[in-house]
Fold this protein.
Amino acid sequence: MSRDINNKFWDEELETLPREELEKRQLADLQEIVKFAYENSPYYKRSFDEAGVKPEDIKTLKDIQKFPFINKKTQRDTQGVGSFLGELAAVPEEDVVFISTSSGSTGVPTMSPFTKKDFDEFQDTESRWFWQIGMRPNDRYVHALNFSLYVGGPDVIGAQNLGALCIWGGTLPSERLLFVLKTYQPTVIWTSPSYAWQLGEKALKSGIDPKKDLNIKKIIVAGELGGSIDATRKAIEDIWGAEVYDFYGLSDIFGACAAMCEAKDGLHIAENHILVETIDIHTGEILEPGQVGELVFTTLRKHARPLIRFRTGDIGRIDNTKCSCGRTHGRIHILGRKDDMFIVSAVNVFPSDIEAVIREHNGITGEYLIRIFERDFTNKYAVEIEKNADNPKSDDEVAAEVTAALKARIGVKPARVVVHPDGGLDTRSEHKSRRVIDERTLDYSI
């Protein structure tokens, strides 16, 4: 199927569906997938029966609220039970053509299986996101993501299906990746926000000016919150002279489930594949669109392992109003992980808020580390930063400035700000950077 390269939509009919028609399609898919899960997944059959619900109870989209939640623990507890794929799976192993696994950062790694239809629809969605940010067949694209079991690895196929020239970079060392960027002059790259920024820094230090010596026009970032933090995104754009777009994905579902458009006002989520709810993190109460809470996803078309009311652990909100770009699929705004949020003096603190302050502040490198600890049975936090080598101010002056900025932005100041020289923090990583260290010993589950 040939496409007009001047049309900003990959699938204009789908992407601009009137809300009423979009929800009508969602309801039909929801009724089918709940029935399929009940009839084919041992876990869902047992879970629905115990909750006293049946597939035919789904008359409207809101009826999904009658059904029980699942979470990562559900996945871990059912994985490998009864079969290789486990009790959540709804197809036999011979129907599965691909599996990815989670990183295991919050527990035992969990696998995500795909039928051929699941996988093909996954890649068509990736093509849609690539097209949405302006990638076209005449682009050269470097996929600098991990291919080892990571669900984002195969997303490069979506770029190939679009017609772009694709370079399967994977997790190359920085020096090798910079060689690729200089030699092959690609126009688009996908990596993590922290690595995009660090790679730009390394380029400058090695005598390569990303703006003049390289040809990157667009940078896709994912895996960390930085791409949706204005200050971080601008810092990356300033180094590269390129547009930065944030993508969001879940190993539990598929690669990129949501992506920015040119408006950069949240990330359009593939609502033809995912039904979104927002709930209170403490009570599980359903919140209205626009309210901040934990995002809950129900897969509408993935058959290998349907996810019915999956608690993502991500805190955010969804905006269902029509975007200025013309797309009608809702936009999610992610604030952070429920696991990462901590409370200081009754204030909810997200690492993303701290990052925004650090990235905006002049005279420091932008690298940071957060330590959460206890003092007198209350939560405290400390921030470690790096001072630019040419910053004439004393460490105490820099610490005082950053402390004041954090207090103004977040509402509670850190117990201390520790200032290191440029390069003094061990936070730089080829992929995701570890920036939060929780030193507390008491149970602060929320």
User: Anything to note?
Assistant: The mean pLDDT is 92. The first strand starts at residue 96 and ends at 101. The radius of gyration is 22 Å. Residues 1-338 form a domain with the Rossmann fold fold (CATH 3.40.50.12780).
